Amino acid sequence: MSAPASSHSAFRDGFAALWHEPVLLAAELTWRWCFGLSAWLLVVISGALFLDSLKISPGDEFLLGTLQPQLFSSAVRHIFRGSLTRLILEQAVLLLGLLLLWAFAATAGRAATLRRLVDMFRREEGPDAGTWEFRSIFTLQLLRAMWSLIALAVTVLSLALGVSLVDTRPVRAAFFLSFGIVLGCVFGVLLNWFLGLAPLFCIRSGSDPMQALAQAIDFTARRTGRLSALGVGFLLLRLVWTGTMLAAILAPLQLSKHLAPGGILLLMAMMALVYFAGVDLLYLARLGAYASLAEEDAGPEETAEPYPELDPVQQMKASSEAENEFGPAGSGTF
């Protein structure tokens, strides 16, 4: 079933797609929240296993029980001595696992939602409309996650180097604090944008990762104005939603005299879930707007000729038939 044509407003088409297919939001929430819950469980289990591997001597227990700052810090340093390497290795394995888990979850969820969105806005419907392209989307999602980590690492490292060199080498500190951070953020956001848009073209045309990335760059170059307007519109909605829900999340704090701390935290957690659901809805509506705009961009261009061009023989034959039926030109009766 195809949604209405989307030549007038891609922004409105994005929300119309969600209104037409509410199950898209359910699918988006399912894969995102399942990944989030799994990630938190892995982090908690990893931390618990690391803490369980530490050995605490009776002397350390005594120093911890004194609650004196100097004695307490001395006991903590003694407990964690020699465990830094093991902690780094465990966190590296955890990070690799989370990257792979994110890539698998995002591939399955994004393929399902994008395939339905593309089929809704596709002009030519058919049994093979829209492809899954799991391998291509998985590669793009993995590259996106890795590039985001690289950009974040470059930004944090530039900040750390800049702060450490402020007193000794101010010129280098200014370079790291300005160019290093700005370049890390700019390149991180740009490539993340293209890698996030490329799966749409994997679904539309069955492209491999590099072809889809090239098509995303070309599409952005052709439709820069429309994409910028969509980005500003969804950003304003996101800011309004964030401000509204921030007030709603903090509202249970006023009930501290009537509710236990556990009840207040539960209400705040429920409001936070509503906020994240709204954020996912806006993101999915933006994907729908991109799918609508991409279909409009790929539509056939109208030619200036209202009728198909005929060769001279066909023109003479058509003219002769017209004269036989209506008489010579200009001799019509009134």
Please report the distance between the alpha carbons of the first and last residues. Answer: 50 Å
Q: Structural class of the secondary elements?
A: mainly alpha
Beta-strand residue percentage:
under 5%
The overall pLDDT average reads: 80
Count of discrete alpha- or pi-helical segments spanning 4 or more residues? 11
Uncertain segments of ≥5 residues (pLDDT<50)? 1-7, 301-311, 328-334
Share of helix, binned: over 70%
Rg over CA atoms, rounded to whole Å, is 30 Å
Q: Which term fits the overall shape?
A: globular
Structure characterization notes:
- The chain is an all-alpha fold and about 325 residues long.
- It has a domain of about 90 residues.
- It is about 80% helix and about 0% strand.
- The chain is built from eleven helices and no strands.
- It is globular and about 75 Å long.
- The N terminus and C terminus are likely disordered.
Offer a concise description of the structure.
With 334 residues, the chain is mostly helical. Helices cover 78% and strands 0% of the residues.
Task: From the structure above, extract its key features.
334 residues; single chain; disordered C terminus; mainly alpha; disordered N terminus; 0% strand
Secondary structure layout:
Layout: H1 10-20, H2 23-53, H3 58-66, H4 69-80, H5 84-121, H6 134-164, H7 170-205, H8 209-222, H9 224-250, H10 261-297, H11 312-326
Helix pairs in contact: 1-10, 2-5, 2-10, 3-4, 5-6, 5-7, 5-10, 6-7, 7-8, 9-10
